[in-house]
Amino acid sequence: MQKTSAPTQQTVRIGYVPLVDAAPLIIAKEAGFFLEENLDIVLHRESNWASIRDKLSLGLIDAAHMLAPMVFASHITPPNSHHDKSFMTAMALGYNGNAITLSNPLFDELNAEGKSLDEILAALKAYVDASESKLTFGSVHPFSMHTNLLLLLLKRAGIDKDKIEIKVIPPVRMVDAIRDGLVDLFCVGEPWNTAAQFEKAGKIICYGSDLWSHAPEKVLGLNSKFARQNRETHIKVLRAIVRACQWLEEPDHMAQAALWLASKRYLDCSSDLLLHAMVNQWQNQANGSAQRKIFFSQNANAPWPQHAKWISDAIFNPRNTFATDGQWLTPPDQIYDWEIFSQVMTSLGLPVPNTDDCPGTLPKL
Amino acid sequence: MNILVIDQIAKRAETLEQALVKLGHNVMVRPPGKYAIYQMVESFQPDVVIVDADSPDRDTLEDVSVTSDRCPRPIIFFANDEDDEVIRQSIQAGVSAYIVDGLQPNRVKSLLNVAISRFEQHQQLKGELKKTRDELADRKVIDKAKGLLMKHKVCDEEAAFAAMRKMAMNKNVRLAEIAQDVIDLFG
Questions:
Q1: Which residues contact residue A243 at a Cβ distance below 8 angstroms, ignoring those fewer than 6 apart?
Q2: Is residue A353 in a domain?
Q3: CATH value at residue A61
Q4: Measured between CB atoms, which of A80, A142, A260 is closest to B66?
Q5: What does each C-alpha distance from A66 to A36, A48, A141, B39 come to in angstroms?
Q6: φ, ψ dihedrals at A48, nearest 5°
Q7: How many CB atoms lie within 10 A of CB B177?
Q8: In chain A, N or C terminus with fewer CB closer than 10 Å?
Protein backbone atom coordinates (compact mmCIF):
# COMPACT_ATOMS: atom_id res chain seq x y z
CA MET A 1 0.00 0.00 0.00
CA GLN A 2 1.38 3.33 -1.01
CA LYS A 3 1.41 5.78 1.89
CA THR A 4 1.92 9.11 0.33
CA SER A 5 0.69 12.38 1.70
CA ALA A 6 1.74 14.21 -1.44
CA PRO A 7 -0.36 17.26 -2.37
CA THR A 8 -3.63 16.67 -4.17
CA GLN A 9 -3.25 15.14 -7.62
CA GLN A 10 -4.80 16.40 -10.81
CA THR A 11 -8.52 15.81 -10.93
CA VAL A 12 -9.53 12.72 -12.91
CA ARG A 13 -12.99 12.87 -14.47
CA ILE A 14 -14.78 9.55 -14.88
CA GLY A 15 -18.10 9.18 -16.70
CA TYR A 16 -20.71 6.50 -16.07
CA VAL A 17 -24.22 5.53 -17.10
CA PRO A 18 -26.50 4.90 -14.10
CA LEU A 19 -26.64 1.08 -13.98
CA VAL A 20 -25.85 -1.53 -11.32
CA ASP A 21 -22.58 -2.38 -13.05
CA ALA A 22 -21.29 1.17 -12.50
CA ALA A 23 -21.09 0.11 -8.83
CA PRO A 24 -17.28 -0.33 -8.75
CA LEU A 25 -16.82 3.38 -9.59
CA ILE A 26 -19.49 4.59 -7.18
CA ILE A 27 -18.18 2.37 -4.37
CA ALA A 28 -14.57 3.43 -5.00
CA LYS A 29 -15.78 6.98 -4.53
CA GLU A 30 -18.20 6.53 -1.62
CA ALA A 31 -16.17 4.00 0.37
CA GLY A 32 -13.05 6.15 0.02
CA PHE A 33 -10.89 3.82 -2.11
CA PHE A 34 -10.05 6.69 -4.47
CA LEU A 35 -9.14 8.88 -1.51
CA GLU A 36 -6.85 6.17 -0.15
CA GLU A 37 -4.90 6.45 -3.41
CA ASN A 38 -4.81 10.19 -2.87
CA LEU A 39 -6.83 10.64 -6.04
CA ASP A 40 -9.23 13.47 -6.69
CA ILE A 41 -12.00 11.85 -8.73
CA VAL A 42 -15.10 13.55 -10.09
CA LEU A 43 -17.80 11.16 -11.33
CA HIS A 44 -19.91 12.43 -14.24
CA ARG A 45 -23.32 10.83 -14.67
CA GLU A 46 -24.25 10.61 -18.37
CA SER A 47 -27.65 9.72 -19.74
CA ASN A 48 -26.47 7.86 -22.83
CA TRP A 49 -23.52 5.92 -24.26
CA ALA A 50 -23.07 8.38 -27.11
CA SER A 51 -22.28 11.14 -24.60
CA ILE A 52 -19.71 8.91 -22.92
CA ARG A 53 -18.05 8.37 -26.29
CA ASP A 54 -18.12 12.02 -27.34
CA LYS A 55 -16.77 13.36 -24.05
CA LEU A 56 -14.06 10.73 -23.83
CA SER A 57 -13.04 11.40 -27.46
CA LEU A 58 -12.59 15.10 -26.81
CA GLY A 59 -11.00 14.74 -23.40
CA LEU A 60 -13.94 16.30 -21.54
CA ILE A 61 -13.74 13.22 -19.36
CA ASP A 62 -10.62 11.07 -18.89
CA ALA A 63 -12.10 7.63 -18.28
CA ALA A 64 -15.49 5.96 -18.32
CA HIS A 65 -17.66 3.01 -17.44
CA MET A 66 -18.00 1.69 -20.97
CA LEU A 67 -19.53 -1.09 -23.05
CA ALA A 68 -16.56 -3.30 -23.97
CA PRO A 69 -17.44 -3.34 -27.71
CA MET A 70 -17.47 0.50 -27.77
CA VAL A 71 -13.77 0.51 -26.95
CA PHE A 72 -13.15 -1.49 -30.13
CA ALA A 73 -15.64 0.49 -32.22
CA SER A 74 -13.58 3.63 -31.52
CA HIS A 75 -10.71 2.07 -33.50
CA ILE A 76 -12.69 1.55 -36.69
CA THR A 77 -12.43 3.87 -39.68
CA PRO A 78 -14.82 5.15 -40.84
CA PRO A 79 -16.30 6.81 -38.89
CA ASN A 80 -13.30 7.46 -36.64
CA SER A 81 -10.07 8.55 -38.28
CA HIS A 82 -8.12 9.99 -35.37
CA HIS A 83 -5.98 7.91 -33.07
CA ASP A 84 -6.37 10.50 -30.34
CA LYS A 85 -10.11 9.97 -30.32
CA SER A 86 -9.81 6.27 -29.66
CA PHE A 87 -10.04 4.37 -26.38
CA MET A 88 -8.16 1.65 -24.54
CA THR A 89 -8.69 -0.36 -21.39
CA ALA A 90 -6.61 -2.28 -18.90
CA MET A 91 -9.47 -3.44 -16.68
CA ALA A 92 -12.84 -5.15 -16.98
CA LEU A 93 -15.52 -4.20 -14.45
CA GLY A 94 -16.72 -7.80 -14.06
CA TYR A 95 -18.50 -10.63 -15.87
CA ASN A 96 -22.19 -10.78 -16.82
CA GLY A 97 -24.98 -8.70 -15.34
CA ASN A 98 -27.52 -8.62 -18.18
CA ALA A 99 -30.77 -10.50 -18.50
CA ILE A 100 -33.32 -11.16 -21.21
CA THR A 101 -36.91 -10.15 -20.59
CA LEU A 102 -40.00 -11.08 -22.60
CA SER A 103 -43.11 -8.93 -22.96
CA ASN A 104 -46.20 -10.28 -21.19
CA PRO A 105 -48.13 -10.94 -24.44
CA LEU A 106 -45.22 -12.86 -25.99
CA PHE A 107 -44.60 -14.74 -22.71
CA ASP A 108 -48.23 -15.89 -22.74
CA GLU A 109 -48.19 -16.59 -26.47
CA LEU A 110 -45.19 -18.91 -25.99
CA ASN A 111 -46.71 -20.53 -22.90
CA ALA A 112 -43.40 -19.82 -21.22
CA GLU A 113 -44.50 -20.34 -17.62
CA GLY A 114 -42.48 -23.14 -16.00
CA LYS A 115 -40.57 -23.92 -19.19
CA SER A 116 -36.80 -24.27 -19.55
CA LEU A 117 -34.92 -21.77 -21.67
CA ASP A 118 -34.54 -24.22 -24.56
CA GLU A 119 -38.26 -25.02 -24.50
CA ILE A 120 -39.04 -21.29 -24.60
CA LEU A 121 -36.62 -20.80 -27.50
CA ALA A 122 -38.19 -23.70 -29.43
CA ALA A 123 -41.60 -22.07 -28.95
CA LEU A 124 -40.12 -18.73 -30.03
CA LYS A 125 -38.75 -20.27 -33.23
CA ALA A 126 -42.09 -21.90 -34.03
CA TYR A 127 -43.81 -18.57 -33.43
CA VAL A 128 -41.38 -16.63 -35.64
CA ASP A 129 -41.63 -19.25 -38.42
CA ALA A 130 -45.42 -19.05 -38.41
CA SER A 131 -45.64 -15.28 -38.13
CA GLU A 132 -45.89 -12.84 -41.02
CA SER A 133 -44.60 -9.84 -39.13
CA LYS A 134 -41.19 -9.43 -37.55
CA LEU A 135 -40.67 -9.40 -33.81
CA THR A 136 -38.65 -6.48 -32.41
CA PHE A 137 -35.83 -6.99 -29.92
CA GLY A 138 -34.36 -4.16 -27.84
CA SER A 139 -30.64 -3.66 -27.32
CA VAL A 140 -28.94 -0.69 -25.64
CA HIS A 141 -26.36 0.18 -28.31
CA PRO A 142 -25.21 -1.17 -31.67
CA PHE A 143 -21.77 -1.87 -30.17
CA SER A 144 -22.70 -3.67 -26.96
CA MET A 145 -22.62 -7.13 -25.41
CA HIS A 146 -26.40 -6.80 -25.32
CA THR A 147 -26.47 -6.94 -29.11
CA ASN A 148 -24.08 -9.89 -29.02
CA LEU A 149 -26.19 -11.74 -26.43
CA LEU A 150 -29.31 -11.23 -28.54
CA LEU A 151 -27.45 -12.69 -31.54
CA LEU A 152 -26.35 -15.66 -29.39
CA LEU A 153 -29.95 -16.14 -28.28
CA LEU A 154 -31.11 -16.19 -31.91
CA LYS A 155 -28.39 -18.64 -32.81
CA ARG A 156 -29.32 -20.96 -29.95
CA ALA A 157 -32.97 -20.79 -31.03
CA GLY A 158 -32.01 -21.42 -34.67
CA ILE A 159 -33.76 -18.23 -35.77
CA ASP A 160 -32.41 -16.32 -38.76
CA LYS A 161 -31.36 -12.79 -37.81
CA ASP A 162 -33.36 -11.37 -40.71
CA LYS A 163 -36.55 -12.70 -39.17
CA ILE A 164 -36.40 -10.18 -36.34
CA GLU A 165 -35.47 -6.56 -35.96
CA ILE A 166 -33.06 -5.25 -33.33
CA LYS A 167 -33.74 -1.67 -32.24
CA VAL A 168 -31.69 0.44 -29.89
CA ILE A 169 -33.60 1.63 -26.83
CA PRO A 170 -31.81 3.37 -23.94
CA PRO A 171 -31.96 1.43 -20.63
CA VAL A 172 -34.10 4.06 -18.89
CA ARG A 173 -36.79 3.67 -21.58
CA MET A 174 -36.70 -0.14 -21.75
CA VAL A 175 -39.49 -0.85 -19.26
CA ASP A 176 -41.85 1.59 -21.02
CA ALA A 177 -40.87 0.18 -24.41
CA ILE A 178 -41.85 -3.38 -23.48
CA ARG A 179 -45.02 -2.25 -21.70
CA ASP A 180 -46.10 -0.18 -24.72
CA GLY A 181 -45.37 -3.02 -27.14
CA LEU A 182 -42.51 -1.22 -28.91
CA VAL A 183 -40.29 -4.24 -28.25
CA ASP A 184 -41.27 -7.87 -27.68
CA LEU A 185 -38.05 -8.90 -25.94
CA PHE A 186 -35.06 -7.00 -24.64
CA CYS A 187 -31.57 -7.45 -23.29
CA VAL A 188 -30.52 -4.86 -20.73
CA GLY A 189 -28.38 -4.54 -17.59
CA GLU A 190 -29.81 -4.40 -14.09
CA PRO A 191 -31.84 -2.97 -12.47
CA TRP A 192 -34.04 -2.70 -15.57
CA ASN A 193 -34.99 -6.39 -15.90
CA THR A 194 -35.96 -6.54 -12.25
CA ALA A 195 -37.79 -3.23 -12.69
CA ALA A 196 -39.82 -4.69 -15.57
CA GLN A 197 -40.82 -7.62 -13.34
CA PHE A 198 -41.59 -5.32 -10.38
CA GLU A 199 -43.86 -3.27 -12.61
CA LYS A 200 -45.36 -6.40 -14.19
CA ALA A 201 -44.34 -5.11 -17.62
CA GLY A 202 -42.42 -8.24 -18.60
CA LYS A 203 -40.78 -11.45 -17.35
CA ILE A 204 -37.12 -12.43 -17.19
CA ILE A 205 -36.52 -15.65 -19.15
CA CYS A 206 -32.77 -15.96 -18.70
CA TYR A 207 -29.60 -14.27 -17.56
CA GLY A 208 -26.79 -13.36 -19.91
CA SER A 209 -24.71 -16.01 -18.16
CA ASP A 210 -27.07 -18.71 -19.47
CA LEU A 211 -25.80 -17.81 -22.95
CA TRP A 212 -22.15 -17.21 -21.97
CA SER A 213 -21.11 -18.19 -18.46
CA HIS A 214 -18.37 -15.58 -18.02
CA ALA A 215 -19.21 -12.95 -20.59
CA PRO A 216 -17.33 -9.66 -20.81
CA GLU A 217 -19.53 -6.64 -20.17
CA LYS A 218 -18.29 -3.19 -19.08
CA VAL A 219 -14.69 -2.02 -18.86
CA LEU A 220 -13.00 1.08 -17.56
CA GLY A 221 -12.35 2.79 -20.91
CA LEU A 222 -9.71 5.50 -21.13
CA ASN A 223 -8.98 8.11 -23.73
CA SER A 224 -5.87 6.56 -25.36
CA LYS A 225 -3.95 9.82 -25.25
CA PHE A 226 -4.74 10.34 -21.56
CA ALA A 227 -3.64 6.76 -20.84
CA ARG A 228 -0.31 7.30 -22.61
CA GLN A 229 0.40 10.50 -20.72
CA ASN A 230 -0.83 9.47 -17.25
CA ARG A 231 0.32 5.91 -16.66
CA GLU A 232 0.89 6.30 -12.91
CA THR A 233 -2.47 7.95 -12.33
CA HIS A 234 -4.14 5.25 -14.43
CA ILE A 235 -2.61 2.57 -12.21
CA LYS A 236 -3.82 4.29 -9.04
CA VAL A 237 -7.34 4.64 -10.43
CA LEU A 238 -7.38 0.92 -11.26
CA ARG A 239 -6.03 -0.02 -7.82
CA ALA A 240 -8.95 1.80 -6.19
CA ILE A 241 -11.49 0.20 -8.54
CA VAL A 242 -10.11 -3.32 -8.08
CA ARG A 243 -10.43 -2.85 -4.31
CA ALA A 244 -14.01 -1.62 -4.78
CA CYS A 245 -14.78 -4.74 -6.87
CA GLN A 246 -13.33 -6.91 -4.11
CA TRP A 247 -15.45 -5.05 -1.54
CA LEU A 248 -18.58 -5.54 -3.68
CA GLU A 249 -18.25 -9.32 -3.56
CA GLU A 250 -18.84 -9.50 0.19
CA PRO A 251 -22.49 -10.47 0.73
CA ASP A 252 -22.49 -8.33 3.90
CA HIS A 253 -21.80 -5.25 1.83
CA MET A 254 -24.75 -5.67 -0.52
CA ALA A 255 -27.24 -3.61 1.49
CA GLN A 256 -24.82 -0.71 1.88
CA ALA A 257 -23.91 -0.86 -1.82
CA ALA A 258 -27.59 -0.69 -2.75
CA LEU A 259 -28.09 2.33 -0.49
CA TRP A 260 -25.11 4.19 -1.91
CA LEU A 261 -26.07 3.39 -5.50
CA ALA A 262 -29.70 4.36 -4.98
CA SER A 263 -28.89 7.91 -3.87
CA LYS A 264 -30.09 10.87 -5.87
CA ARG A 265 -26.63 11.70 -7.13
CA TYR A 266 -26.11 8.22 -8.65
CA LEU A 267 -28.84 5.86 -9.86
CA ASP A 268 -31.64 7.87 -8.24
CA CYS A 269 -33.97 4.90 -7.76
CA SER A 270 -35.34 2.77 -4.94
CA SER A 271 -32.70 0.90 -2.92
CA ASP A 272 -35.24 -1.88 -2.55
CA LEU A 273 -35.25 -2.41 -6.31
CA LEU A 274 -31.44 -2.40 -6.40
CA LEU A 275 -31.12 -4.80 -3.51
CA HIS A 276 -33.61 -7.10 -5.18
CA ALA A 277 -31.71 -6.92 -8.47
CA MET A 278 -28.36 -7.60 -6.77
CA VAL A 279 -29.39 -10.19 -4.16
CA ASN A 280 -31.54 -12.20 -6.54
CA GLN A 281 -28.49 -12.89 -8.60
CA TRP A 282 -26.59 -14.01 -5.50
CA GLN A 283 -29.35 -16.45 -4.65
CA ASN A 284 -29.19 -17.90 -8.11
CA GLN A 285 -25.53 -18.53 -7.61
CA ALA A 286 -26.36 -20.55 -4.51
CA ASN A 287 -28.40 -22.81 -6.79
CA GLY A 288 -25.21 -23.73 -8.53
CA SER A 289 -25.37 -21.59 -11.65
CA ALA A 290 -23.22 -18.55 -12.32
CA GLN A 291 -26.08 -16.21 -12.99
CA ARG A 292 -24.95 -13.31 -10.91
CA LYS A 293 -22.88 -10.32 -11.77
CA ILE A 294 -19.30 -11.21 -10.88
CA PHE A 295 -17.38 -8.10 -9.85
CA PHE A 296 -14.08 -9.59 -8.74
CA SER A 297 -13.64 -13.36 -8.36
CA GLN A 298 -12.44 -15.70 -11.12
CA ASN A 299 -10.24 -12.89 -12.40
CA ALA A 300 -13.26 -10.83 -13.40
CA ASN A 301 -11.14 -7.69 -13.79
CA ALA A 302 -8.70 -9.17 -16.30
CA PRO A 303 -8.68 -7.66 -19.82
CA TRP A 304 -8.65 -11.13 -21.41
CA PRO A 305 -7.12 -11.25 -24.90
CA GLN A 306 -9.68 -13.96 -25.77
CA HIS A 307 -12.49 -11.49 -25.03
CA ALA A 308 -10.76 -8.81 -27.10
CA LYS A 309 -10.57 -11.17 -30.06
CA TRP A 310 -14.16 -12.35 -29.69
CA ILE A 311 -15.56 -8.82 -29.44
CA SER A 312 -13.49 -7.44 -32.31
CA ASP A 313 -14.48 -10.38 -34.55
CA ALA A 314 -18.15 -9.94 -33.66
CA ILE A 315 -18.15 -6.34 -34.95
CA PHE A 316 -17.41 -7.64 -38.47
CA ASN A 317 -19.37 -10.89 -38.28
CA PRO A 318 -22.01 -10.99 -41.03
CA ARG A 319 -24.43 -12.53 -38.51
CA ASN A 320 -24.28 -9.22 -36.64
CA THR A 321 -27.14 -6.94 -37.70
CA PHE A 322 -24.90 -3.96 -36.92
CA ALA A 323 -21.83 -5.31 -38.72
CA THR A 324 -19.76 -2.55 -40.28
CA ASP A 325 -17.44 -2.64 -43.27
CA GLY A 326 -14.79 -0.35 -41.77
CA GLN A 327 -11.13 -1.07 -41.13
CA TRP A 328 -9.02 -1.22 -38.01
CA LEU A 329 -7.12 1.94 -37.09
CA THR A 330 -5.21 -0.11 -34.51
CA PRO A 331 -4.62 -3.87 -34.49
CA PRO A 332 -7.47 -5.10 -32.23
CA ASP A 333 -5.09 -7.18 -30.11
CA GLN A 334 -3.40 -3.97 -28.96
CA ILE A 335 -6.47 -2.35 -27.43
CA TYR A 336 -6.61 -4.30 -24.14
CA ASP A 337 -3.53 -3.58 -22.02
CA TRP A 338 -2.59 -6.69 -20.03
CA GLU A 339 0.67 -5.22 -18.77
CA ILE A 340 -0.95 -2.37 -16.82
CA PHE A 341 -3.50 -4.79 -15.38
CA SER A 342 -0.68 -7.11 -14.17
CA GLN A 343 1.10 -4.20 -12.61
CA VAL A 344 -2.04 -3.14 -10.74
CA MET A 345 -2.70 -6.65 -9.39
CA THR A 346 0.92 -7.15 -8.36
CA SER A 347 1.04 -3.82 -6.56
CA LEU A 348 -2.05 -4.87 -4.57
CA GLY A 349 -0.47 -8.21 -3.69
CA LEU A 350 -3.08 -10.06 -5.78
CA PRO A 351 -2.26 -12.96 -8.12
CA VAL A 352 -1.95 -12.26 -11.85
CA PRO A 353 -3.63 -15.00 -13.89
CA ASN A 354 -2.05 -16.68 -16.87
CA THR A 355 -3.40 -15.19 -20.11
CA ASP A 356 -4.55 -18.69 -21.16
CA ASP A 357 -6.82 -19.10 -18.14
CA CYS A 358 -9.83 -17.17 -19.39
CA PRO A 359 -12.81 -18.89 -17.68
CA GLY A 360 -15.88 -20.23 -19.46
CA THR A 361 -16.27 -21.45 -23.01
CA LEU A 362 -16.28 -18.78 -25.69
CA PRO A 363 -19.53 -19.21 -27.63
CA LYS A 364 -19.57 -19.23 -31.42
CA LEU A 365 -21.49 -16.39 -32.98
CA MET B 1 -29.62 22.07 -45.81
CA ASN B 2 -32.18 19.82 -44.15
CA ILE B 3 -31.71 20.10 -40.42
CA LEU B 4 -33.47 17.89 -37.90
CA VAL B 5 -33.56 19.28 -34.35
CA ILE B 6 -34.35 16.84 -31.52
CA ASP B 7 -34.76 18.48 -28.15
CA GLN B 8 -36.86 17.78 -25.08
CA ILE B 9 -37.03 21.47 -24.15
CA ALA B 10 -39.64 22.89 -26.50
CA LYS B 11 -38.85 26.54 -25.92
CA ARG B 12 -35.15 26.07 -26.59
CA ALA B 13 -35.89 24.10 -29.76
CA GLU B 14 -38.17 26.87 -30.94
CA THR B 15 -35.54 29.62 -30.63
CA LEU B 16 -33.00 27.39 -32.37
CA GLU B 17 -35.45 26.67 -35.20
CA GLN B 18 -36.09 30.38 -35.74
CA ALA B 19 -32.37 31.12 -35.93
CA LEU B 20 -31.69 28.29 -38.39
CA VAL B 21 -34.62 29.18 -40.63
CA LYS B 22 -33.28 32.75 -40.74
CA LEU B 23 -30.03 31.31 -42.12
CA GLY B 24 -32.04 29.76 -44.94
CA HIS B 25 -32.23 26.15 -43.81
CA ASN B 26 -35.07 23.71 -43.97
CA VAL B 27 -35.72 22.78 -40.35
CA MET B 28 -37.78 20.06 -38.70
CA VAL B 29 -38.16 20.05 -34.93
CA ARG B 30 -39.20 17.03 -32.91
CA PRO B 31 -39.24 16.12 -29.26
CA PRO B 32 -37.24 12.96 -28.51
CA GLY B 33 -38.95 9.67 -27.88
CA LYS B 34 -39.44 6.11 -28.93
CA TYR B 35 -39.47 5.06 -32.55
CA ALA B 36 -40.24 8.39 -34.12
CA ILE B 37 -36.50 8.93 -34.57
CA TYR B 38 -36.16 6.08 -37.07
CA GLN B 39 -39.10 7.30 -39.14
CA MET B 40 -38.04 10.94 -39.01
CA VAL B 41 -34.57 10.26 -40.34
CA GLU B 42 -35.96 8.09 -43.09
CA SER B 43 -38.65 10.49 -44.27
CA PHE B 44 -36.90 13.84 -43.75
CA GLN B 45 -33.41 12.77 -44.95
CA PRO B 46 -31.55 15.33 -42.86
CA ASP B 47 -28.05 16.53 -43.74
CA VAL B 48 -27.54 17.47 -40.14
CA VAL B 49 -29.18 16.32 -36.92
CA ILE B 50 -28.80 18.61 -33.92
CA VAL B 51 -29.71 16.85 -30.73
CA ASP B 52 -29.88 17.58 -27.03
CA ALA B 53 -26.77 15.68 -25.89
CA ASP B 54 -28.38 14.72 -22.61
CA SER B 55 -31.32 12.90 -24.13
CA PRO B 56 -31.25 9.12 -23.55
CA ASP B 57 -32.71 8.79 -27.05
CA ARG B 58 -29.36 9.67 -28.55
CA ASP B 59 -28.41 6.01 -28.41
CA THR B 60 -31.27 5.30 -30.78
CA LEU B 61 -29.75 7.82 -33.19
CA GLU B 62 -26.49 5.87 -32.94
CA ASP B 63 -28.38 2.89 -34.31
CA VAL B 64 -29.72 4.96 -37.21
CA SER B 65 -26.20 6.18 -37.96
CA VAL B 66 -24.81 2.65 -38.12
CA THR B 67 -27.58 0.98 -40.09
CA SER B 68 -29.17 3.50 -42.48
CA ASP B 69 -27.85 3.99 -45.99
CA ARG B 70 -27.79 7.75 -46.03
CA CYS B 71 -26.99 8.11 -42.42
CA PRO B 72 -25.86 11.15 -40.51
CA ARG B 73 -22.85 10.03 -38.44
CA PRO B 74 -21.49 11.43 -35.17
CA ILE B 75 -19.73 14.71 -35.93
CA ILE B 76 -17.07 13.91 -33.39
CA PHE B 77 -15.30 11.64 -35.87
CA PHE B 78 -15.35 14.06 -38.81
CA ALA B 79 -13.67 17.02 -37.26
CA ASN B 80 -10.00 17.71 -37.63
CA ASP B 81 -7.98 19.44 -34.95
CA GLU B 82 -9.00 23.01 -35.71
CA ASP B 83 -12.70 22.08 -35.57
CA ASP B 84 -12.32 20.34 -32.26
CA GLU B 85 -12.69 23.51 -30.23
CA VAL B 86 -16.17 24.35 -31.52
CA ILE B 87 -17.25 20.74 -31.08
CA ARG B 88 -15.87 20.70 -27.55
CA GLN B 89 -17.80 23.89 -26.80
CA SER B 90 -20.96 22.44 -28.25
CA ILE B 91 -20.73 19.29 -26.17
CA GLN B 92 -20.07 21.34 -23.07
CA ALA B 93 -23.17 23.36 -23.88
CA GLY B 94 -25.15 20.13 -24.26
CA VAL B 95 -25.43 20.11 -28.07
CA SER B 96 -24.53 17.11 -30.14
CA ALA B 97 -24.62 16.78 -33.92
CA TYR B 98 -24.72 14.11 -36.60
CA ILE B 99 -23.77 14.96 -40.17
CA VAL B 100 -23.96 13.10 -43.47
CA ASP B 101 -20.84 11.89 -45.22
CA GLY B 102 -19.19 14.39 -47.50
CA LEU B 103 -20.42 17.46 -45.68
CA GLN B 104 -17.50 19.67 -44.71
CA PRO B 105 -17.28 20.17 -40.96
CA ASN B 106 -16.62 23.92 -41.44
CA ARG B 107 -20.05 24.27 -43.05
CA VAL B 108 -21.52 22.87 -39.87
CA LYS B 109 -19.50 25.14 -37.60
CA SER B 110 -21.76 28.14 -38.04
CA LEU B 111 -24.78 25.95 -37.29
CA LEU B 112 -23.13 24.68 -34.16
CA ASN B 113 -22.30 28.19 -33.04
CA VAL B 114 -25.96 29.13 -33.36
CA ALA B 115 -27.00 26.05 -31.39
CA ILE B 116 -24.37 26.67 -28.72
CA SER B 117 -25.60 30.18 -28.03
CA ARG B 118 -29.23 29.02 -27.81
CA PHE B 119 -28.37 26.14 -25.52
CA GLU B 120 -26.11 28.19 -23.28
CA GLN B 121 -28.98 30.52 -22.53
CA HIS B 122 -30.85 27.57 -21.10
CA GLN B 123 -28.02 25.70 -19.52
CA GLN B 124 -28.38 24.85 -15.88
CA LEU B 125 -24.81 25.26 -14.79
CA LYS B 126 -25.77 25.91 -11.20
CA GLY B 127 -26.52 22.29 -10.36
CA GLU B 128 -23.18 21.04 -11.70
CA LEU B 129 -21.20 23.74 -9.91
CA LYS B 130 -22.94 22.98 -6.64
CA LYS B 131 -22.14 19.29 -6.98
CA THR B 132 -18.44 20.03 -7.55
CA ARG B 133 -18.39 22.30 -4.50
CA ASP B 134 -20.11 19.62 -2.40
CA GLU B 135 -17.55 17.06 -3.47
CA LEU B 136 -14.65 19.32 -2.56
CA ALA B 137 -16.22 19.91 0.84
CA ASP B 138 -16.71 16.13 1.31
CA ARG B 139 -13.12 15.49 0.50
CA LYS B 140 -11.86 18.07 3.00
CA VAL B 141 -14.05 16.68 5.78
CA ILE B 142 -12.96 13.08 5.09
CA ASP B 143 -9.29 14.07 4.99
CA LYS B 144 -9.57 15.89 8.28
CA ALA B 145 -11.41 13.02 9.98
CA LYS B 146 -8.83 10.55 8.67
CA GLY B 147 -6.06 12.65 10.20
CA LEU B 148 -7.86 12.84 13.53
CA LEU B 149 -8.46 9.11 13.62
CA MET B 150 -4.81 8.39 12.79
CA LYS B 151 -3.73 10.71 15.61
CA HIS B 152 -6.17 9.61 18.29
CA LYS B 153 -6.38 5.92 17.46
CA VAL B 154 -2.68 5.74 16.55
CA CYS B 155 -3.49 3.82 13.39
CA ASP B 156 -2.36 4.06 9.79
CA GLU B 157 -4.27 5.54 6.85
CA GLU B 158 -5.72 2.24 5.69
CA ALA B 159 -7.07 1.40 9.14
CA ALA B 160 -8.56 4.87 9.48
CA PHE B 161 -10.45 4.45 6.22
CA ALA B 162 -11.53 0.94 7.14
CA ALA B 163 -12.90 2.21 10.46
CA MET B 164 -14.87 5.00 8.79
CA ARG B 165 -16.22 2.63 6.14
CA LYS B 166 -17.42 0.26 8.84
CA MET B 167 -19.12 3.07 10.76
CA ALA B 168 -20.75 4.37 7.60
CA MET B 169 -22.10 0.91 6.87
CA ASN B 170 -23.37 0.31 10.38
CA LYS B 171 -25.26 3.59 10.31
CA ASN B 172 -26.16 3.45 6.61
CA VAL B 173 -24.88 6.93 5.87
CA ARG B 174 -22.35 8.50 3.53
CA LEU B 175 -18.67 8.50 4.42
CA ALA B 176 -18.66 12.30 4.61
CA GLU B 177 -21.35 12.22 7.30
CA ILE B 178 -19.34 9.79 9.44
CA ALA B 179 -16.29 11.97 8.90
CA GLN B 180 -18.25 14.93 10.27
CA ASP B 181 -19.18 12.87 13.36
CA VAL B 182 -15.51 11.99 13.85
CA ILE B 183 -14.57 15.67 13.65
CA ASP B 184 -17.31 16.59 16.12
CA LEU B 185 -15.99 13.97 18.51
CA PHE B 186 -12.23 14.57 18.29
CA GLY B 187 -11.95 17.91 16.57
A1: A28, A33, A36, A348
A2: no
A3: 3.40.190.10
A4: A142
A5: 24, 11, 11, 28
A6: -155, 160
A7: 15
A8: N
